[in-house]
Amino acid sequence: MASAVLIEPHREVESALRRSMDGLAARVPSAIAAAARDGVLGGGKRLRPLMLLAAYQDLGGAPVAPIFDLAAAVELIHAYSLMHDDLPCMDDAPLRRGRPTAHVVHGTVTTARAGVALIAWGAICAREASLALGGSEAEARRIAETLLEAAGAGGMVGGQALDLLSENAALSEPELAQLHRLKSGALLTVSLEMGGMAAGADARQLAALGRFGADLGLAFQIADDVLDATSDTATLGKRPSDMERNKSTYVALLGVEGARARAQSLVDSASAHLEEAGIAAARLRRLAHFVVSRQS
């Protein structure tokens, strides 16, 4: 069931990502475009675009072409974050998704610049897709601003800073939760909110999507910690692991089974938020199941 959720719209998301890379290539130097293309089109689950699409459709939106471009805009921000996360000044990772990381292939400076270009391009693509969906200029700007806020100091950038500062430190569970709600949870949450906004969700529905995203984003990270502790490099497709980096993890705090139980409890809590808001969310529920059952 979970695999079907991922495969069904995957082709349209990939096409939208290729379109976005073609558009970027017309605006930046070829070396930066090549690094960005490598980072964006190098594979992945595309969970954030799929969450945006699920929220959009579960709230009544029709799957027209521009919604896939809006979903792709979120993935551009995710790709930038991974490219920068892998840099020598961050995690110094040589492997991502079973392939050499962008800075290994294209160089550190070019990769850093390509990541920065993706931030601006993601916001531009989000605005243009929102307009193509029939939104007003104000609505399109709001969606783009919401995406950038999740990528900034109050979201991913702030979480990455906490992550770097916490290496070789033993974090408490509340401290670890705050780190991951920012670093990985913020973009997962905004993916849902953007899908809801594009579908014309009301304030109550958007608030429920935000709460759903916060819980699901943390469940996603806990599942990542379990995979990090139980899978080998060939299966996981990345190096180094968080354990090798001596980072605090939920497995270190709770053990493997305790971490799995905590992730499932968060998925249950996330689903309850949708029920309270009266959102019949078959697609989002299937994605939530995938988050805690995935094997890579």
What does this structure look like?
- With 296 residues, this protein is mainly alpha-helical.
- 73% of the residues lie in helices and 1% in strands.
- The protein has helices spanning 2-7, 10-25, 30-40, 47-58, 65-85, 102-106, 108-132, 137-151, 156-165, 173-183, 185-198, 203-230, 233-236, 250-276, 282-293, and strands at residues 95-96, 99-100.
- It has a two-stranded antiparallel ribbon with strand order 1-2.
- A hairpin with a 2-residue loop joins strand 1 (95-96) and strand 2.
- Helix 9 crosses helix 10 (173-183).
- It is globular, with a radius of gyration of 18 Å.
- It starts with a helix and ends with a helix.
The oligomeric status of these chains comes to: single chain
Class of secondary structure makeup: mainly alpha
Number of helices: 15
Tell me, briefly, the overall form: globular
Q: What is the CA-CA span between the terminal residues?
A: 16 Å
What is the CA-based Rg, rounded? 18 Å
Instruction: Please provide the count of β strands.
Output: 2
Low-pLDDT stretches are: 1-7
Quickly list its features:
1% strand, globular, 296 residues, disordered N terminus, 73% helix, mainly alpha, 15 helices, 2 strands
What does the secondary structure layout of this molecule look like, with pairings?
Layout: H1 2-7, H2 10-25, H3 30-40, H4 47-58, H5 65-85, E1 95-96, E2 99-100, H6 102-106, H7 108-132, H8 137-151, H9 156-165, H10 173-183, H11 185-198, H12 203-230, H13 233-236, H14 250-276, H15 282-293
Antiparallel strand pairs: 1-2
